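Here is an idea for our session: we take a single protein and study its fold together. Once you have written the record down, we can walk along the chain together.
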Amino acid sequence: MTVTELTESSLGEALTRRALDHALAGTTDMAPETLLVPLSYYRDDEVLAREEDLLRRTPLAVAPSAQIPEVGDYVVRAVMGTSLLITRDANGTAHVLLNYCRHRGARPAEGCGNSRRFTCPYHAWNYDSGGQLVGLPGQEGFEGMDPAEHGLVELPNEERHGFVWCVLTAGAELDLDAHLGTLGAELDQFDYASFGYLTEREFESGVNWKGALEAFAEAYHFPYVHGESLIGLNTVANTSVHDPFGRHHRLGFPLNWITALADDPTGSWDARDNMGVIYWVYPNLILANSPVGVELIEILPAGDPTRCSVRHGWMARVPATTDEERAGYEAIYEGVHAAVRDEDFTMLPSCGEGVRQGQHDHMVIGRNEIGVQHMIRVLAGELGLDLDRA
């Protein structure tokens, strides 16, 4: 099946049928062969240096549009150690600004909220929501300085497919069509900009960032890591359908009730109602879609080959309009966040230790871990690594 055919079939019956067939037969999509991955792929400083350079030149989704829906909305977040001020200006246009005052470098903004102005706490230089310098005390001390040339530095950015994207290097090229390819149309089916943003939490973990991403690319571990939570209880173990979209991919993890369609085909064949639909948006974003919402999982290196940062957010397909609905969504988020924090990231640091201390040559990735293999092959290729010699 080609990518074009996948896009045309969308998230409907064809995709659901593939997952149903696997659930009934006890099978799963398979890679052609096992993959051997040298430990250096996860633990070498040289590899990390290449990764950090790549990540600073690659478009990243730094905020969902739904997090800054109104004029004046803003959010500050740290990405790869860089403070970003993400705003929506008076014209409704999103911006990604380096959150460093052009005078002495202090951060003009913190947290999130709604504001037309951002004032540096050091000397009160004042910037508008487009990053322009609009006021400074003691202006006579800066005679000859053009305020128009001393606004906050804006990174290359674009708002599309329900996200604000940027490249972390000022002046770099941002070609989102080239970056996403056919995945752009796939993401548009979800209309993420119409979702209701709920919340997010951040933490660090002692595991390689690529290894952490790989935990969201296979269902092999579900009964062992998530056996007592909704993920393990509701999902068919070690079963998935996998479709690459260039460097990105989509995984479908069938939910237990998908098998009801075999007896009653009048039910919904929308994939979102019958499986967890998981996207890896290269290089660092996981979109984990459920029937009611989407988890946003951003994972990046945190200064060491076996340390990563994690941002875990959630949005509802139907925005909450009452306190009761919001409380219901918060309960859902607490459950999925507990699974990520207390199950995945309680187990994953032991993988980090195994990588740091291991004296074997390689890890072996199974044919049933087809999504993990795709991730590794893509990233190794982008980093110029030979898996036989990395």
Q: What stands out?
A: Residues 9 and 15 are 7 Å apart (CA to CA). The radius of gyration is 22 Å.
